[in-house]
From TrEMBL:
Domain Glycosyl-hydrolase 97 N-terminal stretches: 22-304
Name of the molecule in the record: Glycoside hydrolase family 97 protein
Keywords assigned by UniProt, alphabetized: Calcium, Hydrolase, Signal
InterPro entries: Aldolase_TIM, GH, GH-type_carb-bd, GH97_C, GH97_catalytic, GH97_N, Glycosyl_hydrolase_97
Protein origin, superkingdom: Bacteria
Pfam families with a match to the protein in the record: GH97_C, GH97_N, Glyco_hydro_97
Cofactor(s) the record lists: Ca(2+)
GO MF term set: carbohydrate binding; hydrolase activity
Signal peptide start-end: 1-19
Length: 716
């Protein structure tokens, strides 16, 4: 616990009479805003107890709208241009809302958006400028942002840094990943706040594009105040539009975090033209981990969509010609060449490498299996020319997104897929050349329309082009939304990889239905994912939107393909099934090879049955880093699915089915770890049985190390 001087406490009491207070609709939260010697501060209480101590607000600006380079050093006299001091309160307005809205795709049919709002207009006397700090207090926490009205002395400005702080009173447990301007694909770490700098240097591995921020972490950040009265806190951001994504600088002594924005190559953090707003900073708080997982605050802080037609947006269960390339069995590239010129190289004259996966014969085999098992889509990576030298060269013109390799007959394969009831899922790897993708987007999406594709997986592997931009800088954030809007013009859904993490923006851009933006299943074939990884991601990455995690790996040991290979997927087979319920994925992949599913068709049945869009979700029990048990009701049906996962520890859990309708009988198909199951020694051991249940039923499950259970429930 921090110590305070008597003088500091007296000063706090003297300024409190100037504070503006705001309460949540249920009265459990109280937010207080005040100016101390012209500097804005806020704090947050839950049930009368301090959750966030007095924390500064404000932004530092460059002295004018021209930025020379990142080496430009702030001088003391530049402070007069900042928007973080010298304020007086000019006005305050209050508002409230209580509405129910329906997401196009979501974890529930209805989302409740209820809050009380306080907007404080601050006037900076020395510059005659106004800004507004807006607070929204929900029953699950606080959101706040800056608003910049158009005015005489504030039309254009450039942000040097945003200095929003979140100052906690105690040294809480934290689940975090290292901050990086270009990647979020890191193993989560679990330490105290004070221990983050000591762990930081060991908390990352190498990625294709990487710009690390020393002793900083990424959001959403999950925290826990331990003890007899535990409290869970989630720190994030929502509605990141025309603004860079942020990170959190760590003050390990004072248990404080400060916003750190992603810059461009000149070191500028944001080019602003008024009127404009910042993203929302979010603080979700609950004594129960389950309630944090259930929060929809980030979505509520985004605006409703302006799309006039969302009828083309639908959940999709798909397979893919993908995993065999990830593990090294096949390749994306067609030829042995290593120097390609799009539009000039004659691929028919190149020597095939013999391992190209996206060929007519193999794709038809995948189509046959996907169609026979009720899937709606098939992703095919490596279908288009350019993969021979696609990465590591900072090429701008790296793909054209319309020209197939000689062994991929796009017309024939689409006709064959459609005859089987399958839609192919387009793949647009950009190699992070965003400028090139924007040039080709219309032609690429028109091609998709011509052949009946309605979903695209985009990728941004490598250093960003324009060169010097980052994956999370303002320009690139705007690029992602330009692509989403362009895709909407062609009635196309977007699943982005290596993009920015979502902050509830799918409410506004519902065709951007999923993203990667974290360490997914593919890393099981690289450096690996720890067994607790999937028990942390829903508390961090998933708080603002769906992830394309690509689960469903049944053959977890890679020495099956390559004798002596030590790589393996660190879960049991049944845990892979449970992930389809625990992890919300409206674009839902069965990622393994057909041959592996054919050996376990009884277990594969759960993947065939499980829904991808939901009318209701109930978090039955959860603890970040340990376990999650989730029940979901399939959209438009009376079918329920339950999934439970654990970390590296064996665990028991008893499912109470009281969430089912009273008086009804159901048939439960139960998939559980076998008695001898173990994610290292016996991952494919499982047991399947059926049982009649009601809302009064209870079933005990024993989960193996990194194991789980899955249940499919249908009314009788």
């Amino acid at each position: 616990m921090k110590k305070y001087t008597i003088g500091a406490l007296l000063f706090s009491m003297l300024v409190n009479f100037n504070a503006q207070s705001l309460q949540s609709p249920d009265g459990k939260f109280e937010m207080n805003f005040q100016l101390k010697q012209g500097i804005p501060y806020y704090n947050l209480k839950y049930n009368g107890n301090i959750v966030v101590e007095d924390s500064k607000l404000g932004l530092r600006l460059f002295k004018d709208t021209s930025v020379k380079f990142a080496s430009e050093i702030a001088k003391p006299e530049d402070a007069k241009f900042d928007l973080n001091n010298g304020f007086t309160k000019a006005d305050e307005k209050r508002d409230s809302k209580n509405e129910i809205w329906q997401p196009v795709l979501g974890e529930k049919k209805n989302y409740i958006n209820q809050y009380n709002e306080l907007s404080v207009t601050l006037h900076q006397d020395t510059t005659d400028r106004n800004i507004v700090v807006k607070f929204r207090l929900f029953n699950d926490g606080l959101g706040f942002r800056y608003e910049f009205p158009q005015q005489k002395n504030l039309n254009y400005f450039v942000i040097r840094e945003e200095d929003s702080e979140i100052d906690f009173p105690t040294d809480m447990k934290a689940w975090w990943i290292v901050a990086d301007y270009d990647s979020q694909e890191y193993q989560p770490q679990t330490t105290k706040i004070s221990e983050i700098p000591g762990r930081w240097d060991q908390a990352f591995d190498k990625h294709s594009s990487q710009t690390l921020i020393k002793n900083a972490v990424q959001s959403p950040l999950m925290l826990k105040k331990e003890g007899k009265d535990p409290l869970y806190v989630n720190v994030g951001e929502a509605a990141v539009l025309n603004y860079p994504a942020s990170h959190l600088e760590v003050d390990p002594v004072n248990f404080k975090f400060k916003t750190h924005l992603t810059p461009d190559r000149q070191g500028a953090k944001g080019y602003i033209q008024t009127s404009s707003v910042s993203p929302w900073r979010t603080i979700i708080v609950s004594p129960k981990a389950e309630e944090v997982l259930a929060s929809k605050m980030m979505f509520n802080l985004n605006e409703p969509t302006k799309y006039t037609d969302t009828s083309y947006i639908h959940p999709t269960k798909y397979m893919g010609v993908w995993w065999e390339m990830i593990i090294g069995k096949s390749q994306w590239a067609y030829s042995t060449a290593n120097n390609i010129h799009i539009g000039e190289t004659d691929f028919s004259k190149l020597t095939p490498n013999g391992k190209h996966a996206a060929n007519n014969t193999k794709v038809k085999e995948y189509i046959d299996f996907a169609a026979a098992n009720g899937f709606g889509g098939l992703l095919i990576e490596g279908w288009n020319i350019g993969w021979e030298d696609w990465i590591g060269h900072n090429k701008e013109f790296v793909f054209d997104f319309i020209t197939p390799y000689p062994d991929f007959d796009i017309k024939m394969l689409n006709e064959y897929a459609h005859s089987k009831g399958i839609k192919l899922v387009m793949h647009h790897e950009t190699s992070a050349s965003a400028t090139n993708y924007e040039r080709w987007a219309d032609k690429a999406f028109k091609l998709m329309n011509d052949y009946g594709y309605d979903a695209v997986k985009t990728g941004y592997v490598g250093d960003m082009v324009p060169r010097g931009e980052h994956h999370y800088s303002q320009w690139t954030i705007n690029h992602y939304y330009r692509i989403a809007e362009k895709a909407n013009e062609y009635k196309i859904m977007v699943n982005s990889h290596e993009s920015v993490r979502p902050g509830g923006e799918s409410r506004t851009y519902p065709n951007w239905i999923s993203a990667e933006a974290a360490r997914g299943t593919e890393h099981e074939a690289f450096q690996g994912n720890n067994p607790d990884h999937q028990t942390i991601l829903p508390f961090t990455r998933w708080m603002g939107g769906s992830m394309d995690y690509t689960p469903g790996i049944f053959q977890t040991k890679l020495d099956y393909y390559f004798p002596g290979d030590k790589r393996f997927v660190k879960t049991t087979l049944v845990k892979q099934l449970a992930l389809y319920v625990v992890m919300y994925m409206p674009l839902q992949m069965a990622a393994d090879l057909p041959e592996n599913y054919q050996k376990h068709m009884d277990a594969f049945q759960f993947i065939k049955d499980v829904a991808a869009d939901w009318d209701d979700t109930k978090i039955l029990s959860a603890e970040p880093g340990d376990y999650i048990i989730t029940a979901r009701k399939a959209k438009g049906t009376e079918n329920w699915f339950v999934g439970g996962i654990t970390d590296e520890n064996k665990r028991e859990y008893t499912v109470d089915f009281s969430f089912l309708d009273k008086g009804k009988k159901y048939e439960a198909t139960i998939y559980e770890d076998g008695k001898d199951a173990d994610y290292i020694n016996n991952p494919q051991s499982y047991n399947i049985y059926k049982k009649q249940i009601t809302g009064k039923s209870k079933i005990n499950f024993k989960m193996a190390r990194s194991g789980g259970f899955a249940i499919s429930i249908k009314p009788l």
